[in-house]
Amino acid sequence: MFHLALVVVASLELIQPTKCIVGGYKNSVISVPWIVSLSTNHSGPFCGGVLLDQCRILTTAFCLSNGIKPSDILVRLGSDYANGGGKTSTIETVHIHPEFDATTKNYNFAVLEMSESFGKSLAISSIKFRDSSKPPYIGTPQREGCVGDAGGPLTCDGQLVGIISWSRGCAQGEGIGVYADPTAVRNWLRRIAAPF
After folding, report:
1. Looking at the domain 2-191, which fold is it?
2. Cys-Cys crosslink for 33: which of 109, 125, 143, 151, Cβ 3.0 to 4.6 Å?
3. What CA–CA distance (Å, rounded) separates 39 from 74?
């Protein structure tokens, strides 16, 4: 069963139905403890990410290509809300995939190193990667990402299948949702955040 583990990040506040993910459902961070929200002090939440280990996050390079400085990014994890609760950290280092192309969005991956580490808890835990020997998954209609979803995880049975790379439309039936497969850059990830 597929899970778009964006419920926490993209909905901002699940209390108001007008801000819910189209086709989404209320979820608790305890069932998706690897999800994080990326925000800035001046613009609020702008992208999602997934916790790779106690201090590293996988997101899209495109999320960082609009002149956002690492020192401006605030990571929120272990919370059901993008704007409050849980724990927060600033970013110390950003690793953008060396072959990232902002025009085509090829190799749309970035790893963010937080300024502090977080231990495992019910609401904070790293994700497991899917077995790369299995064929990649195919998406479903009306499940493309919307504004602010980029970098968020697509999971299946608690394993990372992809991250939202980009989308056109917003769950309108004719849109496009493109998910980047992190197993395709596993060697690069190993150099930054072993073991993957």
Report:
1. Thrombin, subunit H (2.40.10)
2. 125
3. 5
